[in-house]
Amino acid sequence: MTQFGSSSSSSSMVSLRAKKHKSKKVSLFCILSTLLAISISTLLLFLRFYDASTRSSALQLQQEHPEQLLLPTPQQRKTVQQLEQEEYMRTGRKPKGMDPHYSQRQIQKKKQAEQEDEEEEEEEDALLMPKEEKAFSNFAKVTRKTKSSVTNPPTTTTKPLRQKKTHFFQDFPPQEKSDHQDHVMPDPNPGAQTATTATAIAAKNINQNLRNKPYIFPKTITPLLHPTSAPLELFDAPTIHFMNISQVSMQDSFSASWFQRKQEFMDMPLDKIMICEDAAWEAWKSFPERLRMTVDVLDFSVEHLSKWWKFMTFWKTDVAYETLMSRLHTYIVRGKNYPTPPQQPMLAETLSMIAFQPYLHKTEQVRHYNLTVVSLAATIESIRRAQMGRVVVVGLVDNGQQIAQDAFSYLAKHVPDMTHTQNAHGIITHIGHLQVAYAPGSKTIAKSKHLAKNIPRTVLFGTRLALELGNKPKDQLQPNETEYVETWLGKGDPSYWKYLYLTEPDTLLNARSIPQLKAQADQGRVLAPHRLQPIPHESDLQGLANKFRYLNQANGFDHVWELDVVDEHDVCCDEQQGPDHKPGKTDFEDCGTWWYMCGFKKDFNDKSLGDVHERLRPYQFMKLKQGTGLTLLSGNLFGRRCFPAKKSFCKPPYVKD
């Protein structure tokens, strides 16, 4: 019994000690949990205070320093409830009275919108890519699911040129071969040897607050002299020459822009516009003999910017955003150097149409809004410089009128020498000689077979309807029809408009020798501008830490031509080798993206791969003094080359009319 009692007492002592030890553990856990909760609460309070102070500082900066290009945005006009909902989406803190299912629905909408945006971009790229690039793109989508696409990146070995393709102009007989069509030796005249002097441009630091810093180019540079150009001083008046259309491919003719008479526009088969690119192609696809493209790229071309800023992810890359905004702002400010002609502008009877889509993203809304407004303003300024008479911005978004007015106001504000006119409601209607307006497009017409939102389609249908209604006697129009005509064509005589120009809101026009361009349109021609492609270059992005995102000067990309389009008549002459000679594209394997961007892919940022930018070596680079000043490929988006030269003209290789 004693032994049993002793054993029982010992067991009780052990149990008591275990309970005390467990109690201490529980107490310690409670203390740690309390401290952790206090820390989290303190951190959340700090983040809330920091977010509020940051937003307050941004608004204060916008009010005190408008020159920083912070424009009024929809973000600043939102209600408290909308801000609370966005705060919840960003931080997870749920405001009182908020719909408990709001977050789930918004996240689903956000994912769906992002997926639609990606599909639209892929569809746009796919439509413009040649068949071999499409095939590789589809192949890459499959191989990216495995590690093989990383361990075995596409090679850059050269291969024989492909056989000549059949082009959409094949049924049109080519012009008689001229003496200049063959590749000839350089002009023996000594002036031809000195016509192209070594020139380069230092990136100007327009805004002192930016990170961009100027640099100095090497003093001795030997640029390539190409036999397609000759010194200007040997001739009195340079004449615009045009390519033989049999030497132009469908891709080469694309820039999403054209200039033509009203008669030719009314003949366009608008019912065939199924994709956005058709709005350009259908202007000459059914009438190939109408197409005209200049031999000198700088006679009629556009700088297309959106691919550059999308690649540079401007919404999160400070240097890219600041560079782009400062270049566009400077372009607009220089508008004072292009006053309204004392007599009637040569293209005053031209109605310009801009197929407008704002760049509004889920994040960094201020930057997207700023870029939308300033790029639209710069596009309109380029149209004003071309002496056209009216611009109609056509869009489908609900706040399109407000965005367009912000662009008009920005342009009027920063070109103070240019008078502007407002109506009784405070709406800007004129900037200098240029009429400006916004017209809402039809969402029903914008729906086509392949796209739910084909804005160029609704632009052209809407313009044609306005012109048709404008031909009717005014007393036969209904009040809503009269209002429609005045919105699109203005309050003057609708028959005043003789020419039309189509473009996009991120596309700056370069046009010189306007009388000769107009003369071509008067003969029933449709003029398609060359599409110039900006490319990331160190001179434009100094201060950007990731050197793989741009062409480095030390890597052989140090020479950039500075071309004066207006005062000195610099040129960039087509190579005259036809549509299949694209050495940076056809001589290499496909890489799954645009040919000129291959070397910037992550898979190519490896020294073991050799010269990742080998595709770009056959090309020169240039900046347009009267343009954005961004570095451009000397050629078009699809690899067709042109050769820059100073104070020159382009020899006529194909047609002389």
Automatic annotation (TrEMBL):
Segments passing through the bilayer: 26-50
Region (Disordered): 89-126
Superkingdom to which the source organism belongs: Eukaryota
Acidic residues: bias regions: 115-126
Keyword field: Membrane, Transmembrane, Transmembrane helix
Protein name according to UniProt: Uncharacterized protein
